[in-house]
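Our preliminary data section would be incomplete without showing what the modeling component actually yields. Below, a chain of 449 amino acids is followed by its predicted structure, encoded as tokens that our downstream tools consume directly.
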Amino acid sequence: MDAEGRAPGPTLPPAGGGGLEPLAGVPGTARTALLTPSAEVLEFDDEEDDLEVFSKDTSLAEANSFSPSMPISPSSMINQYKFEDEPELKDLFITVDDPESHITAIETFITYRVVTKTSRGEFDSCEYEVRRRYQDFLWLKSKLEEAHPTLIIPPLPEKFVMKGMVERFSDEFIETRRKALHKFLNRIADHPTLTFNEDFKIFLTAQAWELSSHKKQGPGLLSRMGQTVRAVASSVRGGVKNRPEMFTEMNDYMETFSHKINVLDKIAHRIYKEEKEYFNEMKEYGPIHTLWSASEEDIADSLKGVASCIDKCCKATEKRMAGLSENLLPIIHEYVLYSEILMGVLKRRDQIQSELDSKVDALANKKADKDLFSEEIGKLEDKVECANNALKADWDRWKQNMQHDMRSAFTNVADNNLRYYEECLATWESFLASQTADHHGEEDSEDRP
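Predicted structure:
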């Protein structure tokens, strides 16, 4: 994009894709949005979840810089104020901060401090401080999915390297991940069921060696392989015969939602990329007028005025980009991840339904002992009913949160755009008025005898 190909003043945003029909609805509870934006994948860390290698001279000095939404310390005045002034119904407060590098003989990795403040009776203390690495968060997510297969577990940031957004394990990457992990834990803390999960409590309170010991008590390899085989077998059998209509509607909704939110994610990143290119060009465009003014005495003031206007519009563009990267991109990408999670939850519900259907078919064909199968069918019917009720309740809650988050994100973007255009317009109008006044003053002086 050439600098002269785009005016330095206000510009209209690029046209996006179609509307988002699934997003209409009523607002729900507010949630913070701090997730890692999506970008081109360079590589995956598939072989070893523990290995998070990064440059050993990476500086973490700025990782704890103050942010209104993220106190730098759990004991800070800001955090105490928020802790005391939150609604009385909230009794669990979690902060993820203070990323720290650890170097061993075989790897270099990052841990984050997790500080928990609570007034719940099941906790032995009112405050805990532990350090956790990314693999610990992955473990917690897997345990929650195992214990609550038909609840919607909040997403974690992906473990890949992104191109065009941040360099691998730079301060920006570490801070972006910290925000995402902070939001992950607080999403769980706000969930009416997940917040009381025993593994979640252990994650928040156990020291590193205690957590490591607890992890070893999990299901073995053969158990995990068995679960995988059952899931694959269920998917091979095809659709569920007796799936309730509402879950078919959920599945159709999520297919549409997944397509549209992924399109929005791509468009939003394209807009951000174009805005960044425009910003970089404007930074070069303004100084050119300043240099030019040195060789043009007659129009030097006008050229310097243009350079000043461009500089002000450049700063406004930078603020607009910050609004996109902080308020829009993370929220959209969070729901890209949520769409994948929801599709997985629906498949797990179908798997439970398929087990019930197969037992009912076997009983109808008299392929097994009737009394034994009747007992198993009764248990499976209870399991299906519990799964259905859990998913229905979580679905309504998730949908309200999604609608509120999306509405807030797009409203913020609209407000930011309005301020941007007003600021740029006022800048150029002020310059034009000054030039007009100077021009009239020169004419009056020439008319005098």
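The two ends are 51 Å apart (CA to CA). The beta strands are 40-44, 92-103, 108-118, 127-133, 160-163. Preliminary results of this kind motivate Aim 1 of the renewal.
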